[in-house]
Fold:
Amino acid sequence: MKLRNSRIGVLLTLVLGMLACGVASATPVMMNFDGLVPGSKVHNYYDGGCTTWNIFFQRSCGGPDYGVRWQGAHVRSVFDEPSAPNWAGPGLFSDGTMTMNVADGFDTGLYFYYTTFLDAFSGTMTVYSGQDGQGTELGHLDLSGTDFYCNGDIPCWLQTGLDFTGHAKSVTFDGFGAAFGLDDVTIGASMVAVPEPAALGIFGLGLLLVGAFVGLRRRTS
Structure:
């Protein structure tokens, strides 16, 4: 009896462990750039480090350690228009090409808000398997131009995203210089909010093992 109960306990522990791992691996990361010093470059802030200095010798440090580093991207300054997706957050604007490097990489997809200030401008977003926009291209998205004024916000912001297959380590965002902006960038998440096949498989296996556990309990009783 004790041996059987011991085996059942080990089985239940394994089930819970697998389910927990499935949930943890599917957890997305969102960067909203709120609270960062205007005019500074994001740089290593989301790698547990600091932004660069702005023209007033100010910077933000102690960001969350997501292993994410940005290049060519500055926090909205007083000279930029209000930001996305509302007037409260600072938003992120381009110095040319914005590159997001993710040390451990991410799967599934990403989504974000963007603006081009005028519908005459456009942009692109490309996902790569290597750092700094190198390696295999895993996905590409053409970003159409946005209007200048909509719903009380200047400029207009649109939400979009891309699901892909593979393991990404960098993303490049190209647009018309400082007219191209990003906000609420979320990585490791599906644009259509569908659970990953691997997560579904783990969840299904967990249910089967829980069923087996219940059956063993009944037999023991």
In short: The chain has a mean pLDDT of 78. The helical segments are 2-25, 197-220. The CA atoms of residues 47 and 111 lie 20 Å apart.
